[in-house]
Amino acid sequence: MRALTVGSISHAEAPDTLSRAGEPAPYSRRGPGPVFTPKPDIVHHGGNVHAPWSGGTTSTNVLAPNGTTYASFGTSFAAPLASAMTAHVWQSLNGHPNLQANPALVKALMVHASQLSSPAYTGWERRYFGAGLPQDALSVLFDRDDSFTLVFEASLIPGAWRWRKSDYPIPAVLRHDGKLRAEVIITAAYAPPLNATYGAEYVRANLELGFGVEDENGFKGKVPLLGEEGTAGYEAEQVEYGGKWAPVKVHRRKFPNGVSGDAWALNAKLMLRAFEPPLQEALRAYIVVTLRATDGDTRVHTQGLQALQASNWVRHALPVRVPIIV
Question: Looking at the 3D structure of the chain, how many domains does it have?
């Protein structure tokens, strides 16, 4: 439940392969996980399969113990690629004076980077691809010029109290006639309390998350939009389609024509299951939000930093070192 689960996709294809490049590898398990938990979290390359289930030119070149090489395939090759990248990210954060590297933070960054480098998958596609394929450690830690990303460490207390970051800094270039014209990509990860004695309800806390507009009537969520499949209705529908009780939340929405709103906010709330005892301390969640231009405008990052500086929020640069691969 708390692990970073890695699926496999094919990186190359041939006339006799069982999948095409970029498609889920036929040996990789698809999700969802237990009680519709979104799994896998991300994917990486594990080699393609040649009919009838044999290695070949599009598989992974493997070094054998005797020094020879052979062609093979499996998620056993995809997972080390993802774990090596994860280790680079962890090391880049290690020693941060104001933020301690931890599994939930690194997991949020890896899943978010996979979103940024992949298309917006449907719920059905996420059962094979997860959030997508992360490119490299640098793309996890640094923005592109057309994007503005903030990472929040939220201390959540169950109950009516909500964590909120209001008057959210918006790059000026993304505002058009009172509307936000951008793609909003959000990832959150946290380590909920678990209790196997409750069976299917063993995850005991759920994070409710939204990015939207504040006005005199309160907060109106835009990502996700209230009424989307899985955001309301019966509990079973929220679990199956909305990722309720899942320790990773993935939200994404593009507004090519803009969406009205002057004051934007990020909103989070923690809910415990019935009869779950109060937490001894606040639960920490890590929320990553990217605002990305829909037209590739390269002024977004610079103007985002300017808006952040004007907000007077307490802020720190994320990485303390840069991974260099030789």
Answer: 2
